[in-house]
């Protein structure tokens, strides 16, 4: 059995930071009931934190990978360094940011610890800048699409500051709309099985003071068909070269429902989530998290013991169902046939 993670009572504004030779991260498994900051001092603790979703969301995983390489250099003997870095880059398979940022920082190994840490800090700063840019660009696109009326958005999973370093991706757009006084409502899908929407997005929207309602995943198509939202905003874990997008399971169903209702679905993700080496959605590796997460929640079981289950953590939305992809640098109009 793993020892309980070390915690600190320092309050944090960023999801993940490097502090005095170790990583600190907001434990997303404890929210919204407890605000716990974990001190991660070893590579195996970092890998465990990634696997149990204490740190999660594609951009945050990228920063975790980046600082993970620095942690590995600082704590692992040279002979074990390559294996330690590989264990970080493969801790979860779908979000390309994790492997990509781990590789990017590992490419500086020959230049020593200082260069590695500098590169990791650059990744961290870039993700913060990207979140701000996505918020602005996404809100501007919504102005173009919907005019100057107040906006009712629908979103899935958690794509806020917790999933990045600050502000986030799709939820950064919601936050920017709210700051501009344009957000009428944000419908947050609870996001089975781990309830990132109910636990994390509702918490973040509450802290923002943004108007919101929590809805069960299965209510979303009906609510869209009744005109309850003007726009659907989703994040991404990996965007293939043709625009097919892997995101939290449920996004594909939401995209089908949005198309049926004539509501545009906009994907919001940093350039670091676009994977030009993966040609289409069929080639994106999808994590299966096992039966236990489906058969109950936390310590309480809902299904009969040993019920077999299939638990893909992500699904793939075909580019044809996506109106546009907003990145920190551009808007890709998939609805006009543009590709990343
Ligand atoms: O399993 P998770 O919680 O890591 O899944 C996260 C998502 O699917 C997010 O929508 C995605 O990473 C974008 S985060 C800004």
Structure description:
The protein is of the alpha/beta class. The protein has helices at 43-51, 58-75, 78-89, 96-106, 113-146, 170-179, 196-208, 220-225, 251-261; strands at residues 7-8, 16-19, 22-26, 37-40, 151-155, 183-189, 212-215, 231-234, 238-240, 245-248, 265-268, 274-275, 296-297, 300-301, 314-317, 324-326, 331-332. The strands form four sheets. The protein has a seven-stranded mixed beta sheet with strand order 7-6-5-8-11-16-17. A four-stranded antiparallel beta sheet has the order 1-4-3-2, covered by helices on one side. A four-stranded mixed beta sheet has the order 12-9-10-15, with helices on one face. A hairpin with a 2-residue loop joins strand 13 (296-297) and strand 14. Bound molecules: 5-S-methyl-1-O-phosphono-5-thio-D-ribulose. The site of 5-S-methyl-1-O-phosphono-5-thio-D-ribulose has 19 residues, from helix 2 and strand 10.
Number of folding domains?
2
Terminal Cα span: 44 Å
Structural class assignment? alpha/beta
CATH level-four homologous superfamily name of the largest domain:
Translation initiation factor eif-2b, domain 2
- The proportion of residues in beta strands is 15-25%
Helix content: 25-40%
Spatial extent as radius of gyration: 19 Å
Poorly predicted parts = none
Separate helix tally: 9
CATH architecture of the largest domain: 3-Layer(aba) Sandwich
Report the major sheet. 7 strands, mixed
**Mean pLDDT figure:** 96
List the ions, cofactors and other small molecules found in this model: 5-S-methyl-1-O-phosphono-5-thio-D-ribulose
